[in-house]
Amino acid sequence: MLIREAIQDDWPAIWPFFQGIVRAGEAFTYPLQLGKDDARGWWLVPEPSRVVVAVDDTGTVLGTAKMNRNHMGNGSHIAGASYMVDPDHSGRGVGRALCEYTVEWARAQGYRAMQFNAVVETNTRAVALYRSLGFEVLGTLPEGFKHPTHGYVGLHIMHKAL
């Protein structure tokens, strides 16, 4: 698997799984009916943020990550990131590779830590992955997320010092 800079031409490959993940309403706080053009602007963000895709040896997009400053001004030394893996390619280490990549990017950019603001507590695979890479749950916003199956569940704030 290769992780490379995302380009606008990657959007047609990202959009189908992006749309499916968002509309499922289980992991992101994005509007469920987020349209293609708005979604592109939300995900393919300009510098100093960075967006990458993980591709296989045929060039198929397996997943994507967005890296950014978590806050502005005096909080701009903390990085954030978001990940989406095509469900057709889950269980192959794509999410782990993307997360490791973003941590190394943040470290190389001089960030002091990474913070995830809204990890849905029922997204147990993501929580376990982040914990395995050294992230800790700093706190949980009770009932901060309306899950389509589980109802109101918590949103974890997760952190890793770099």
TrEMBL record:
Question: Which InterPro entries does this chain map to?
Answer: Acyl_CoA_acyltransferase (IPR016181), GNAT_dom (IPR000182), Mito_N-acetyltransferase (IPR052742)
Please state the Enzyme Commission number of this protein.
Answer: 2.3.-.-
List, alphabetically, the SUPFAM superfamilies matched: Acyl-CoA N-acyltransferases (Nat) (SSF55729)
Q: Which CDD domains match?
A: NAT_SF
Top-level EC class as recorded in UniProt: transferase
Which residue spans traverse the membrane?
none
The N-acetyltransferase domain is annotated at 1-162
Which keywords label this protein? Acyltransferase, Transferase
Superkingdom of source:
Bacteria
Record GO terms (molecular function): acyltransferase activity
- What is this protein identified as? GNAT family N-acetyltransferase
Q: Which organism is it from?
A: Streptomyces flavovirens
Write the lineage as a comma-separated list.
Bacteria, Bacillati, Actinomycetota, Actinomycetes, Kitasatosporales
